[in-house]
Amino acid sequence: TLDKVYAREILDSRGNPTVEVEVSTPDEQMARASVPSGASTGSREAAERRDGDAGRYGGKGVKKAVNAVNTEIGEAIRGIDVREQRHLDNLMLALDGTENKTRLGANAILAVSLAVARLAAQVMQQPLYRYLGGLRANLLPVPCMNIINGGVHARGQGADFQEFMIAPHGAPTLSEAVRQGSEVYQALRQILLAKNLSAAVGDEGGFAPTVASNREPLEFIVQAIEKAGYRPGEDISICMDPASSEFYRDGKYHLRTESSALSAIEMTDYYGELMDQFPIILLEDGLAEDDWDGWKHLYQQLGSRAELVGDDLFVTNVKYIRRGIEENLASAALIKLNQIGSLSETFDAVALCQQHGWGAFISHRSGETTDTFIADMTVALRAGHLKTGAPCRGERVEKYNQLMRIEQALGEGAQYAGLQAFTRRG
Ligand code: PGA
Ligand code: ZN
């Protein structure tokens, strides 16, 4: 049973405060979890509760969320069976009583939800991936590594598009995929330095060079794949998250690197041209969170060429994913725990995707901690692919390292997802 519940403020990878929770049993078994924070957040995400007290952390303090755990939430859940995850999450949802977790805060609720799951795994003497996924938890994901950061993750200095990722789907194992990704990353660094471009990194560990177009990062990446000795498209392909809600205004897409604003139809053509020239197998948030009609067109045109993933569009919420499935708008949903704010609801979102042949693309946030929960969760859910930044910066590599540990622990039983993790059709 659950005994103590304790929350504190810690720092995330951007140096902003976030919530960490410790939970324990009466016999002093203890588990800990912390929550991440986004920068290009979707407008329909669950509420991240911040103090708004300008005298502390510029208003970003999370003392109120921490206090909610230490008082109200702790009192409501003490004594429950830690294996009753669904019951725990439902209790907290009911206690909060709002649609978007605005009263207690999704950051408070999620930290408790994850810490209790980890404690339950410990009580059951199982690794987290096994506890969460049972015997089917043996599929290692393709690591989609974000090696060039643009958009708001590079403070508007780089490309318009936020993320340029490499997916080493042709590797035989996850560990080999991590090695290949790291080698391409180091090759890219050399290429940038040789061109007198900055090799300083952005929020997710990728390089953030000043570039003249959105094509240039793709060219650099193809060169880096070749320089590292791999075949673009066959061994390693490219995934892109333009995070287009960030440059969508008045029904148009405003790219810093294009002379005029583009319509959804023109954006779709633009992506189609990029797909003609580069081995792109996944496009996330190609269009904006409110552009539902545009998405329909995008899917009709490009759904057979790349996995089309909705992030800001669906915000890990079954309500919006269901609409996406009914209206045939995409082929996958991005899955971020803190967009919805509890473990059970995240599992529901993934189950809905998988029931309909959709991909579930598991994701970190741009503001992270060293917590590796998503690594175990990806294996548990057989999600087949995840993105958790470049092979650089402690909070990013720790997730990849955890996946390598899991692969080793599974031994012969481990499978690598490879190319089939990417849903293309339509
Ligand atoms: P965020 O970005 O964590 O800053 O919201 C990640 C994404 O858009 O996928
Ligand atoms: Zn995104």
UniProtKB/TrEMBL annotation:
Residues holding Mg(2+): 241, 284, 311
Signal peptide (residue range): none
Biased composition annotated in UniProt, kind: Basic and acidic residues: 45-54
Cofactor detail note: Mg(2+) is required for catalysis and for stabilizing the dimer.
Entry annotated with the keyword Metal-binding: yes
InterPro entries the record matches: Enolase, Enolase-like_C_sf, Enolase-like_N, Enolase_C, Enolase_N
Positions of substrate binding: 153, 163, 284, 311, 363-366, 387
Function comment: Catalyzes the reversible conversion of 2-phosphoglycerate (2-PG) into phosphoenolpyruvate (PEP). It is essential for the degradation of carbohydrates via glycolysis.
Family: Belongs to the enolase family.
Name of the protein this chain belongs to: Enolase
Organism field: Paramixta manurensis
